[in-house]
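Backbones bend. Our protein:
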Amino acid sequence: MASHPDIRSHRLDAAEIDRNFVDLHPPLKRSEALIEADRCYFCFDAPCTQACPTGIDIPAFIQKIRSDNIRGSARTILQENIMGGMCARVCPTEVLCEEACVRNTHEDKPVEIGLLQRYATDPVIDAGTQLFARAPATGKRVAVVGGGPAGLSCAHRLAMLGHDVKVFNRDPKRGGLNEYGIAAYKTVDDFAQKEIEYILAIGGIEFEDGVALGKDFSMAALRDAYDAVFLGIGLALVNDLKIDNEDLPGVENAIDYIAQLRQAGDKSTLPVGRNVIVIGGGMTAIDIAVQSRRLGAENVDIVYRRGPDDMSASEFEQQLARTSGVSVHHWLHPKAMHGAGHVESVEFDKNGQPVTMPADVVFKAIGQRLADRELAGELRGIDLDYGRILVDEDQATSLPGVWAGGDCVLGGDDLTVSAVQHGKIAALAIDRHLGGKNG
């Protein structure tokens, strides 16, 4: 981040920052988990299960917690969602399973499904207890492009089914957005890497890190060398605001700074603005705003061009921002950045009236897009729409032998849990394509 008098490190000391970045939702103790599990009504055709993108049998795993069968509970979760540990931390459960819970009324509160899911999965992942075994080797080889949630989910299911998988990963570390794009207070203690180690322990999955499609290898080469290809390439580019002076120093991409923060050994050394403006209304906007406050920014404002009901960040996330000291503004359209050599203010339009807000750092959190132009040659033959890959109900693309999932496909909701489901669906479809007998 460019230097500026109002941007500096050590706004807070390391000890205070460490306190600010403790686990957002501390894990349940055994007594707490048993009490919470006992609140479940164990509904037939449970609406919580129907609301889960990966179809976890939620009453079944909670029932096993009640009987102290933690391993069985974890198996019920992980057989549908191999990244159930991470999803227990980052899923917007308040708009998925917990919103659908029949106890979610004005007089009551939903069962804490996310915390119960973490209670069941953490001991198994921490101990490395393998609950799944590989099927006999099929002799088939599948290439997975992308080491994020979609790619890892696909690779694990394919390995379970006996196929050999090679994952081509662009980043130095594995995990995609789970490693680089999620707020640090949601996944403490290097959990993303612990979960990946657990996933890879099944065997049959080879990784090559630091390689990118179109630079280090081609789609044509993959299709020649492998029996099937899965694309979990994410969204590599950040959308532009398309306003004046957008390239001023101090105007940053939120996702890049979140990645820097996640990889920082000492968060107190990160440069932090005094007046921070975040443009956007999704989870990334909330994450960067709250983390800026926790790093010591004095004033943090989220500015969104529509109303509160249109924000893609959940109400829980919006409330988290407000209780963290972040101000949220609506109906403000960015018009221009202003500053002499560095951003100093942002001009907005509100119902035809100009509004100017001071800023020494501006974070853009207005979504990402597929690097479709950069990958045009590699994606030839694959139908795209709105800059994303079109897939059918099996996650198959229009190019024979190629499937895709995660954020790069049209209709994706940029959630880890949805990416995991895409990878699982694609793996089952690839297995059938290769002659497997899975349902």
